[in-house]
Specification:
This protein has twelve helices and eight strands. It has about 250 residues and is α/β, with parallel strands linked by helices. The chain has an eight-stranded parallel β-barrel with strand order 1-2-3-4-5-6-7-8, surrounded by five helices. The chain is globular and about 45 Å long. Bound molecules: 1,3-dihydroxyacetonephosphate (13P).
């Protein structure tokens, strides 16, 4: 019922040449995939070239951030329409690295989510607890607040179209994945909390898991009933490993 989505977040990696070389290989290696939606999120400076290379393929592209204003004196920022113009259909919003290093809050996440939707982009809204929060047993409280504030005020249709990514901060880039049970527990909770906001959308919304997803652990994670896909960092940087994620054994 919910089509899986396998997404790669390239973070601050790759020149145009490097990006093109990966997507060329990827285009070939996953051209036969129809049962999984595939998304890569390169840097702003490579989006245009990557989009040209991927035209007509089964791979969507997304940006890693945007600003909520439509235009004007906001030096260094990129508007939702510009992201769309570069060929993106998705945009990551509120990644923990942006929350941690660039002052992103649930309030800015909400503004960006609404602006992305208004521009016809699908926001991939990231939530997740830190190690300290997990140890203090406040994981559910943290996720609930991030969802309720970050995704407030959407229409029923918008609420069903967004993607949520659960990325426990302690599992990002550490090689320490949440176990399939640990991840499923939070995904089920997130779906329930989302259901309190948007009853119908909660069964339709895709919830991705992110945090050291790799070719070895992807299948077990994907077997969980509330995990609808993955958001990979490191394992998405090479065509070979990302192909293994997209073609995880079912
Ligand atoms: P890693 O897969 O490198 O842990 O990164 C996860 C992530 O932050 C994806 O957005």
């Amino acid at each position: 019922m919910r089509k899986p989505l396998m997404a790669g977040n390239w973070k601050m990696n790759k020149t145009v040449e490097e990006a093109i070389s990966v997507v060329k290989a990827l285009k070939r290696s996953i051209s036969d995939v129809t049962d999984v939606d595939v998304l890569i999120c390169p840097t702003f400076t490579t989006l245009y070239a990557v989009n040209n290379e991927l035209k007509g393929s089964n791979i969507d592209i997304g940006a890693q951030n945007l600003f909520w204003e439509t235009k004007g004196a906001f030096t260094g920022e990129i508007s939702p329409a510009m992201v769309k113009d570069a060929g993106c259909s998705y945009v990551l919003i509120g990644h923990s690295e942006r929350r941690q290093y660039f002052g992103e809050t649930d309030e800015t996440v909400n503004k960006k989510t609404k602006a992305a939707l208004a521009a016809g982009l699908i926001p991939v809204v990231c939530v997740g607890e830190t190690l300290k929060e997990r140890e203090e047993n406040v994981t559910f409280k943290v996720i609930e607040k991030q969802l309720k504030e970050g995704l407030a005020g959407l229409t029923a249709e918008q609420a069903a179209s967004v993607v949520i990514a659960y990325e426990p901060v302690w599992a990002i880039g550490t090689g320490k994945t949440a176990s399939p049970d640990q991840a499923q527990e939070v995904h089920a909770f997130a779906r329930k909390a989302y259901g309190e906001m948007y009853v119908d959308a909660s069964q339709k919304v895709r919830i991705l898991y992110g945090g050291s997803v790799n070719p070895t652990n992807v299948s077990e994670l994907m077997k969980q009933p509330d995990i609808d896909g993955g958001l990979a960092g490191g394992a998405s940087l090479q065509a070979e490993s990302f192909t293994k994620l997209v073609k995880y054994s079912k």
